[in-house]
Amino acid sequence: MPATDTAPAVQKFRRGEAYALFNPAFFGILLRRFIDGHVDAGATAGVPYVLPFVAIPMAVAPDVRSRLSYSTASHLGAWVQTNPNLMATIAPFARALVPYVRMGILLGAERGLVSFDDGELAPGPVPLPKPPSARAEGDLAECQRAARFLGRWFAKYPDPSSILALLGVKP
Description:
mainly alpha
């Protein structure tokens, strides 16, 4: 990996179970969990293509996962104000994971987990097993729960640019 200012953010996750998080197949599963959460929230449209590039990095970052409210009643703007220290890390981490998210999207589409519908992402024809239970432990289960929650949470905001602006991420 070329040396960049974001390399340490990625390198610190390259140990043990966390290394599996960068697997394109796992990113494809996280993408599908994110899309399923979006659909479960009653969103009438698919997921805008840009949102997984923010949601998946947020789901795999332990610091972010541990600070999510897991309540869709909470407002994203209030969460951002409550967690200003995370705002400095989300955008660089999201940029560092772009190639991994892209591979997850491509593999997910190839395997039928996701489909493209009118420029947006939608659930594909291949179903996923049930999501991990609330009692399931470990990074893999926590990431999946976070991805599904982020799908439900982001569905409250019909304009993806407002989500990106609140999180300090540029498309």
